[in-house]
Amino acid sequence: MSTKNKKNRVKVRSQKKTSSSLSKLASITTSSLSNAYTNYRKNLEKKKIKEIKLRKLEEKNEIIKEKKDLKIWEEKLQKESNKLNLKEQELRLKDKELKLKEDYQKIENKRLIKKDEDLGVIDKDLRIKEKELKQREEEQNRKDIDLKVREDEQKTRDLKEKRKKEKLLKEMKEDEDRKKKLEYIRIQEWEEKFDQEQKLKEQAEIRREQKLKEKELLRLKSTEDKNLDNPALPSLENFKVDKTSEN
């Protein structure tokens, strides 16, 4: 579009110049018309050649400029293309990374879902075990309470039994002490009675011996009286000696 505009401008200038030349030629005399026309033709040809050269130069410059611009645009387009290629590569890499992330996320989601399911199963098992443990604890508490009650009852029975035994032992001891005391008193009484009986026996024996002695003395005295005139004195002395030996 710029080259066409320049050509049109050149044509407009040429037309203006041609009109001006024709006006000048009208004022020239008839005698110099042919020379002028010839010169005009030459000048016109020169101008045309010059214009053509200028036009060609302008076109050449325009072409060079357009080539430069085209090359610049090509370089820009190449850079943009390179940028686009880089961006496409980056996008492909990002897409690949995104796909990998999505795949990883899917795997991770599956793993998390499986983990949640496993945790749900574990949580369910834990609740069941906690419930069983609570039941066991309650049962153990009941057993402990029952055992404590039985132990308390056994302690109460043992305490009652102990007190009963202690009371029985005390009563037995008191009874034994009483029996011992009674036995001691009985023995004392028996000993006293025995001593009294012994004393009475001894006294009776003494009295009996005394009576026997008295009887013997009386008998001896009677015998002596009868034997005063009878020499039987040695027999009496022997009798006294024997009696003394017996005593």
Structure in a nutshell:
The protein is mainly α. The protein contains three helices and no strands.
Structural class: mainly alpha
Using DSSP, what is the number of strands? Answer: 0
Sketch the topology as an H/E string, one letter per element: HHH
Task: Report the uncertain regions.
Answer: 232-237, 239-247
Q: Can you characterise this structure?
A:
The chain contains three helices and no strands. The chain has 247 residues and is mostly helical. Helices cover 95% and strands 0% of the residues. It starts with a helix and ends with a helix. The radius of gyration is 87 Å and the shape is rod-shaped. The longest helix has 194 residues, at 33-226. The chain has helices at 2-27, 33-226, 233-246.
Name the descriptors.
247 residues; mainly alpha; 95% helix; 0% strand; disordered C terminus
Question: What's the arrangement of secondary structure elements?
Answer:
Blueprint: H1 2-27, H2 33-226, H3 233-246
Helix pairs in contact: 1-2
